[in-house]
Task: inverse folding
């Protein structure tokens, strides 16, 4: 921990020349009466990251941030007033007609060369950032047995396979008691399938099945679904607990351990080698957001995303309800009309999914968002989209889909915004590095892939000094430019991809895989 | 393990005098050509638990089992033939009009007295069967931190509190990224709330919260929701990770441990005392069912259910899609018209829930069910309902609801049939003992409450000798009557409630809490 800094000069942060509100940058907020250089005198005490009116606003006037109308003033608001959520009426969602389609031509950007990391090359061309044995499960019923086996593998086998980082039971709540023939069941099924094929597992797929579950191993992983290797001719890859050969619990445990050892031996042959930065598949996400998310951490991720694209890497952004109000920005940035249509299809499907449950995108925002200065989902969305940077959107993934060989650059991976569900779906897409920004703070981690956590403000970074990997609050403090922070994050990604542990990995804190299942359960 | 038995005489099991099919009782099935004493000669090889036509059936004729039409013959079927699922057309679901309402008058049954167990009395009158510290969580985000703390509590604190059996982190996938204001969100919310109030946690509720989640601690447990004790005046019961007081990860862990110790001290004062059998709250369930489920294990549970009701205890049966086809039996057995209407309301709501996802009750059956001889959901339902015995249905719980003080006797707890979701909801209802029948075999267990597992057939009981607690296959083998087995199970329940460990407890195998959330996620 470093000593607390002297208070910085009062300052507001405006995101776009058209904006008629700006937010307080100072840690701890500003008192009523504070005079802002080149700005208004505050009429109210305004917390950090909350909005201040830059001019007098009359009732009904658009309130503009990020150059976008985030709401309409519900009454007259004097310059220098705190513009909080109770003073704003939220605009309705833009419909899907007459959207700008692939209208923005790409910047001519210089390819970024010479950046590399030390990764594990896989036979299918993907690259792992960790060397993990993943144990795939077909159904929650086997979770207790797998957990028991994982403990024994970790204690008894792993010490002999020094190049393997860990063993991970891919437990989940799916597999039985579900309407598996419902059309939307494809989402959880392909999610589990594709997670088992994540680059960090090196193609060493092994499955623990119960036997009578709906999600049978051949349905989960039909022949041909392993792009990497498939030696099921030897029928060695699935342990089925109900098989007649198992007499007694230890027979099941030992069968899992024997199978695990076959894979551990092969995984132990993997060694890190120098690979170009283009092998990164980065999943970006924000959670526990505050108004600084869209000012410090997410814009820096936007810079990093542009660097990744220039380096030939893949970078995914997600969170349907947080891009819904910027659908026109997304369709305009689509590389071609097919991509634009795929974006519309995903967001329209999600609108309908929410409507079935009689809610809409505004169900996204949390008490913490509002306490953190985000008045509504429109404002939150603008601060969330900014992490996608400025590149063209090259392709779109439906929830649980895996990136194809040709899908590189900036990808919109359509997912719910829920942190643990979005992360689970990005793992299925093939993510080998996760970067996560938070303003309120979350100890989020994944067992399957490193998660770099970026604090939006210095106060959080100081308090959670051994949980947050990056302090983006330095931008609000005026210590660092967004561009410099973006480059710092890009370089940190390469270090973490090469094996440097994140805080979540050091403590071994991780969240459960949580599947997105829009189909009914039975 | 006992030595395999000599093969028993060929025999079929008929459930009702009206039945025109019966199932093969013999372990291993019977060969074509086998002559059945007082029955047909088999035309086909028929696996154990599969159906045999007792008479010639003509195309279109009702096929009757449990005295109920389980399907219509799709073609002529000769006596002695194997009647498998491809030969049957499933009847459509009975509609909700003109049902018999509370028409069956209760048997005059003798109260059953003199049975007791050794349990932990709670202040609210409930009784625990285990002495556990439960750590309630408001959101999945905190799961990694809670897991870390649970390990340290188990290693460092529990050895000093010998009367406490274990510490359980009540982790779940809810709390954020959900449409928490959707009408149906009440289900997952009350489920988490009511699980924290389960009798096995002794009223010692402590909560770990992130801070910015949608499911705020006061929404999860509003003042007054603790029927047992509520000392939130001291604000000591919630650890909020985002609180400014926490500097560094260890500050969070130590705060959880300090709070845990307060509760461990009080839990350690609990001692077992003799209580009447009426303090049992038994949740009954079946999973991984085969056709013997409805012949051996479930009928024996029916006997045990009747004994429990006679002893003044509470016994719940559940699994909406497995009672749907017997709705007329349930409404007829309702204690009064209000109870009958509550049953209809729950099943109608569930029909609509399934229809929203474009499926129906037939989505329940699994490949294992069919391989095990259950042709369709109607046949499966008849074999599932039978575990409710013959008592009147005294009340109905909606999913996630908790039993009220006056709700005793036979209760229909409306839940999905999914094993881990049904179990989670029965925990919320206040279950202190779970009994689970299985034909195909599942290693199912819960950390929150003992689970007695009953094998429907001897083959499974022999192979899974250290996972199955009871072998109901002895009924099919002709060794034991259903009535004798029902009494044996009743007595075993009292022993397990008194502290005898089940196999799942000995191995510490347990499944995750899986919430039923019909509302959208965001
Ligand atoms: Ca977000
Ligand atoms: Ca998120
Ligand atoms: Ca666990
Ligand atoms: Ca069942
Ligand atoms: Ca079940």
Result:
């Amino acid at each position: 921990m470093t000593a607390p800094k002297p208070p910085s000069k009062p300052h507001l942060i405006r995101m776009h020349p058209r904006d008629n509100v700006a937010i307080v940058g100072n840690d701890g907020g500003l008192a009523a009466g504070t005079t802002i250089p080149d700005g208004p005198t505050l009429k109210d005490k305004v917390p950090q990251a909350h909005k201040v009116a830059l001019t007098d606003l009359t009732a009904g006037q658009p309130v503009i941030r990020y150059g976008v109308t985030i709401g309409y003033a519900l009454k007259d608001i004097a310059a220098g007033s705190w513009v909080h959520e109770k003073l704003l009426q939220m605009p309705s969602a833009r419909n899907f007609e007459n959207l700008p389609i692939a209208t923005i031509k790409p910047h001519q950007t210089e390819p970024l060369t010479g950046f590399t990391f030390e990764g594990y090359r896989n036979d299918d061309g993907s690259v792992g950032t960790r060397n993990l044995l993943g144990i795939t499960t077909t159904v929650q019923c086997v979770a207790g047995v797998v957990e028991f086996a994982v403990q024994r593998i970790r204690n008894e086998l792993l010490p002999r396979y020094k190049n393997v980082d860990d063993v991970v039971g891919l437990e989940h709540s799916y597999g039985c008691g579900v309407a598996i023939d419902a059309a939307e069941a494809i989402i959880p099924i392909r999610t589990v399938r594709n997670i088992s094929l994540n680059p960090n597992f090196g193609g060493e797929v092994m499955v623990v099945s119960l036997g009578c579950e709906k999600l049978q191993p051949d349905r989960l992983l039909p022949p041909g679904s392993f792009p990497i290797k498939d030696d099921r001719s030897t029928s060695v890859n699935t342990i089925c607990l109900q098989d007649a050969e198992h007499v007694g619990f230890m027979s099941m445990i030992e069968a899992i351990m024997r199978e695990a050892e076959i894979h551990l031996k092969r995984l132990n042959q993997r060694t890190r080698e120098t690979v170009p930065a283009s092998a990164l598949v980065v999943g970006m996400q924000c959670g526990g957001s505050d108004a600084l998310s869209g000012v410090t951490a997410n814009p820096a991720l936007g810079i990093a995303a542009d660097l990744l694209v220039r380096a030939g890497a893949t970078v995914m952004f997600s969170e349907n309800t947080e891009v819904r109000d910027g659908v026109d920005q997304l369709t305009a940035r689509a590389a071609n009309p097919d991509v634009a249509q795929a974006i519309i299809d995903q967001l329209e499907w999600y609108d309908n999914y929410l409507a079935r449950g009689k809610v809409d995108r505004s169900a996204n925002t949390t008490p913490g968002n509002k306490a953190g200065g985000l008045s509504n989902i429109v404002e939150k969305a603008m601060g969330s989209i900014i992490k996608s940077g400025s590149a063209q959107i090259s392709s779109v993934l439906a929830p649980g889909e895996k990136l194809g060989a040709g899908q590189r650059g900036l990808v919109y991976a359509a997912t719910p915004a829920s942190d643990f569900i979005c992360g689970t779906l990005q793992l299925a897409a093939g993510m080998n590095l996760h970067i996560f920004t938070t303003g309120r703070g979350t100890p989020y981690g994944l067992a399957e892939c490193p998660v770099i956590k970026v604090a939006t403000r210095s106060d959080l970074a100081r308090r959670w000094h051994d949980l947050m990997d990056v302090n983006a609050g330095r931008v609000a403090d005026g210590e660092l430019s967004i561009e410099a922070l973006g480059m710092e994050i890009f370089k940190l990604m390469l270090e973490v991809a090469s094996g440097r542990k994140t805080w979540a990995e050091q403590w071994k804190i991780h969240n459960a895989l949580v599947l997105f299942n829009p189909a009914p359960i039975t």
In short: The two ends of chain B are 51 Å apart (CA to CA). Residues 249-268 of chain B form the longest helix (20 residues).
